[in-house]
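Review session, final week

We close the course with one last complete record, chosen because it touches almost every idea we covered. It is Shikimate kinase, a protein from Billgrantia antri with 180 residues. Go through it on your own first, then we will talk.
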Amino acid sequence: MQDLPNLILVGPMGAGKSTIGRLLAAELSRDFLDSDHEIQARCGADIPWIFDVEGEAGFRQREMQMIEELTALEGVVLATGGGAVLREENRRRLRERGTVIYLFTTVEQQLKRVAKDRNRPLLQRPDREQVLREMFELRDPLYRATADVVVRTDRRSPRGVVNEIVRRVQRIIDPLQAKA
């Protein structure tokens, strides 16, 4: 499966983009990159600090530059931040430079998965569920419009999700081989 384009994971926080991305990259013998981790490494600061100092707009500008840079690479698995799809330029770049997989999860699953996570600046409020629901309403249509494939991650093992992604992406790349 070396002829695959970049595989780009989009979806909300808690969908499993980093975990599944690492496994997918290992399965395909590819490099794994996480745009949020790359931003942190480049800045020498964590995302909550960037949000505190530069606000969400400053972070989104950094994110856009990082997506431009990372999607220019070839043969990678890339996990994006949950809000990467908010900018049309990012959505266009993701679609043009890879096969985009939307890791869908419900708000209920997100709440369970991020319950103890304090590195989520947009969730540092008492009404976490309401925040996640509002983000879902805004972002779900953007994820779907950007994605080539939608894969549900609720109550599934990361390995099972990876296997499904590999099967479905292979069908997109070579529909005849996938039926063999």
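Two points worth writing down before the exam:
Helices lie at 17-28, 35-43, 47-71, 88-96, 107-113, 128-146, 158-173, 175-179.
DSSP finds eight helices and five strands in the chain.
Good luck, everyone.
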